[in-house]
Amino acid sequence: MIPLLGISTQALFGQLLLGLINGAFYALLSLGLAVIFGMLNIINFAHGALYMVGAFCAYFLLNLLGLNYWFALIISPLVVGLLGIVIERTMLQRLAGLDHLYGLLLTFGLALIIQGVFQNYFGSSGLPYAIPRELTGGTNLGFMFLPNYRGWVIIFSLIVCLATWFMIEKTRLGAYLRAATENPALVRAFGINVPRMVTLTYGFGVALAALAGVLAAPINQVRPLMGADFIIVVFAVVVIGGMGSIMGSIVTGFMLGLIEGLTKVFYPEASNTVIFVIMAIVLLVRPAGLFGRTA
Amino acid sequence: MKTSVAIVALAAALAWAGSAAAQNKNVKIGSLSDQSSLYADIGGPGSTVAAQMAVEDSGMAAKGWKIEVIAADHQNKPDVGVSIVRQWFDVEKVDVVVDVPNSGVALAVNNVIKEKNKVFLNSGAGTSDLTNKACTPNTIHWTYDTYALANGTGNALTKGGGDTWFFLTADYAFGAALERDTTNAVTKAGGKVLGTVRHPLNSPDFSSFLLQAQNSKAKVIGLANAGGDTTNAVKQASEFGITQGGQTLAALLLFITDVHALGLNASQGLTFTETFYWDMNDGTRAFSKKFASRMKNGNVPTMVQAGVYSAVLHYLKALDALGSNPNDGAKVVAKMKEMPVDDAIFGKGNIREDGRNIHPAYLFQVKKPSESKGPWDYYITKATIPADQAFRPLSESECPLVKK
Asked: What is the pLDDT of residues B79-128, one digit of tens each?
């Protein structure tokens, strides 16, 4: 063991790995935000609330219908995605073409309403959700004890992130989407149903939030405020990465997870603040974010 | 603006003149709590319900008293708490502030209440400083404090062989007080503290801190935090195999709502100190049943909420004995200290000169899932710490009100 900055390299590896796992959540959530902002130009403040609804959905599936974690991983994003489609069709669509601020206010209000309703019925301390049987226990990596579930989180979210990036940047569907954000009128002239594409994109974005919610359920309590605590940090991640940049949000998510992890070792008191400090610096130096293009 | 101020002043003057002529039998109780965040289930709306139940059970309405309960959310921010109570005193004419979890907020509000000569019946906050350095003639600390928690749990675990400790501490007044008091209890019992890590309030992820605790090789990992922080830490500790690795987890402050949220699988075996459990005797069971029926989520009362009930009940008894509301906080508190406390919740007790309400504390252990007979059947009583030993002895007090 070679000590580095006062702690052993072994312990440091462990902390870095934990940072990456938290980064996986940041990446997954900020990815959904980036997709929605990139394609719809909506700053989706309801993202955290829908992440929470995803986790509650998993809880209800298990306790009311007896469907376990693996079903929840598929059904919960579908349910929340549908909810998102309803929200887009009935409310957000009316704001198309207006200033960003309107979308922000609407989604923020929605988030408060959804959280308020859940808090009214379930209180603030939350409900238990156990780790699926297949993933209990852990593996001794030599430098740390890694719970199998956390290992699963990091691998699964990486796959989802990369698949999303691939779909948007490398496929024909993705090309339509990107074209529609650049110039919707022109894309519509080619006979492509742009409003439907926008609706589906919003549904997909919030489905990613629900997926993150299901992944988080066994680690955190299923709490009405689990998203509210998280969403501010995730917004900071998106701002640092550059609004709307897909790869930017994935890389920044993991990177900030690492930085936060290191802060927890060297100066734990600041671990909830460090991301905002970085955000301030990035905004000063590169206002468009690390991966953003200046308009 | 000026005219409205004048009207308010005139109205206040008239009200005052009117009340001076007749006897003032109006009382306004302000329940200040965390209504929406990590401590909301511990106090929050339940504390308001408890205060209302105490008003109803006091029978004061039949004697011509008009008692009103109002509530507000301090959002765990001392500045928000202070501005709420200032408004309560100056505009709403509140006489007594109850509950106030979060030691940071409680200590800030404590000063304002003394300055305005009102009454502070604290149930929710932990810091033992409220009846020590920060004691005032207007404040009574009702339910528990960090000294009692440390003394109960720290002492029992250290004497049971857990003689090396590592703390995960919430980084604010309460965590610091709990860590300090537990460190004293541990070293007094012959143990040693190996290290500590201070985490921000309301942290979603404890894995990094738990890993540091694991690497310290301490026998006991003390959680000097509360509410959502404690439940997350306990849940993640079981994920990282902390207890399987031979380390003991000590939740220094655990509430029944936390155990309910964790489920017995994750929380079984935890040992901790509390001063109230709903299933102790007929009195506590009857109160809890009535309380749960009035809660939207059907929760039984936590010790904080039970404490609010008991404190308000005693406050009203003192007012009844005084015959009218004297609008003098210190006078009411002096009367409360003079009268013995006796109710169905904490049994017989008394309030000391430093403002500490004295009653027994209990060392509880969380049941195994197989031992529990149903929802909320969660605790086994391991030991009773008698009233005279549960709290900081007056001989160690730094409170200026204590005559030595």
From this structure: 999 999 999 999 999 999 999 999 999 999 999 999 999 999 999 999 99
Q: Give residue for tokens 């989604």.
A: A107
Interchain pair A121, B207: CB under 8 A: no
Q: What is the pTM of this model?
A: 0.81
Which long-range contacts (C-beta less than 8 Å, at least 24 apart) are formed by B236-240? B236/A219, B236/B205, B236/B206, B236/B207, B236/B210, B237/B206, B237/B210, B238/B266, B239/A131, B239/A138, B239/A147, B239/A149, B239/A150, B239/A219, B239/B207, B240/A138, B240/A145, B240/A147, B240/B207, B240/B210, B240/B211, B240/B214
Helix then strand then coil, % of chain A, to nearest 5: 75, 5, 20
Angle of CA points A217, B196, A22, to nearest 5°: 30
* Relative orientation angle of helices A47-64 and A194-216, to the nearest 10 degrees: 60
Is B185 within 8 Å of B151 (Cβ atoms)? yes
Query: Residue B224: in which H helix or E strand, if any?
Result: strand B220-224
CB B255 within 8 A of CB B304: yes
For residue A25, the distance in angstroms to the closest alpha carbon of chain B comes to 11
Q: What is the pLDDT of residues B385-401, one digit of tens each?
A: 999 889 999 999 999 99
Report ipTM for this prediction: 0.77
Question: Taking CB atoms and an 8 Å cutoff, what residues of chain B touch A269?
Answer: 171, 198-200
B113's CB contacts (< 8 A; 6+ apart) are B85, B97, B119, B120, B136, B138, B139, B329
d(CA B144, CA B300): 18
Is residue B138 within 8 A of residue B113, CB to CB? The reply is: yes
For β-strands A7-8 and A3-4, DSSP reports them as antiparallel
| Residue B137 token pair | 């003639």
10 Å Cβ neighbour count for A247?
A: 17
Q: Which of A123, A144, A150 minimises the CB distance to B299?
A: A123
Nearest residue on chain A to B168, alpha-carbon basis: A268
Q: What are phi and psi of A139, to 5 degrees?
A: -120, 135
Contact B164, B219 (CB under 8 A): yes
